[in-house]
Amino acid sequence: MARNIDSALVQWGDRLFYPSNRIVPADPPPKLRARAVAIRQRIATVVRRAPQVIVRVTGGGRGMGAITDHLRYITRSGCLEFEDDRGTVRDGKEALRDLTDGWRYSGRFISEVENRREAVNIMLAMRSGTDAKLVRQAVRDFARIELAGHRYVMVLHEHQTSPHVHLCVKRESIAGERLSCGTPDLKRWRQTFAERLQGLEIDADATGQAVRGATRNFDSLWRMKARDEGRLRTTIRPTKSGQAVDRSRAEAMKCWGQILKALVDSEQEEDRKLASKVADFVCRTPYIQDVLRKHPEAMREVGRHLEAEQQPIVGRGSSGPEWVR
Question: Which residues are CB-neighbours of 111 under 8 A, at least 6 positions away?
Fold first, then answer.
């Protein structure tokens, strides 16, 4: 029975959290148990709504002119300390000039204007109140893992509400390979950053929006800056919509339903306690709330469940869409 529960959690947990790697051979019992424990830990992190890390590519310089301008911006023209890939910490205009000259002439020469991006600008942030120095340490560890072989500069900004670090990365590595920064890379970067923060005992997560049933976009960079400076006049964010959005969230809710069913059927008391938290989390996701508003009969049943604290409705027969049953 226990192995069946573990198998179901691994199957649906992998499908929910790691969709690109969900088709895998069956594991022997020792490895299956270890993976099931890891999935339970990931579920617990998500349902307690751990703060989400922010990792964004904010642009990149097409030539040393644009790269220099960005380095001046993030260092406040050398007034803020900046740390390079060798761990050297400097400040001042002269040090900044030495840095840009080194980038221009080391490896492939970078002219003032180029046809392609020769640098990538990345911002990594955590919620307000997080220790800024620990955020910088987590970014330092992140860069050593994800940006190994590349020249980069990191600068901590703590004058705004949310502590964040700007990374300017030279696109071409010492070995002549160009840094990839597509969607799969961003997802991996978020996960790595969250893991580094967790290693410093900071509660953090890097769960996708579909998994959390989110229906609103992240704030754009200009909105974040405007809020920090008190210039933001509206709190309304655009809502995600479309068939792809509905499909991804419906798939995620289906996985949550199967995970919930496995936890409810478990003989372990901790699993059943976790099931109650999962049910509450799923019922309160923005996507499910939107659907329940469209299906008031399902909303009434959810209300009865939450009041009576009975077995969750997700996975059971009920009116409404298939993944609410």
Answer: 63, 64
Q: Which residue has the higher pLDDT, 185 or 219?
A: 185
Q: Distance between CA atoms of 103 and 13, rounded to whole angstroms?
A: 44
**DSSP secondary structure string, 51-76?**
PBPEEEEEE--SSHHHHHHHHHHHHT
Domains of the chain in sequence order: 2-50+241-324 (no CATH), 54-199 (3.30.930.30)
The token duo for 263 is 């936890």
**Other beta carbons within 10 Å of 123:** 19
Alpha carbon distance 254, 283 (integer Å)? 13
* Enclosing H/E stretch for 2: helix 2-17
pTM of structure: 0.80
Three-state SS across 228-293? HCCCCCCCCCCECCCHHHHHHHHHHHHHHHHHHHHHHHCCCHHHHHHHHHHHHHHHHCHHHHHHHH
pLDDT at 137 over 60: yes
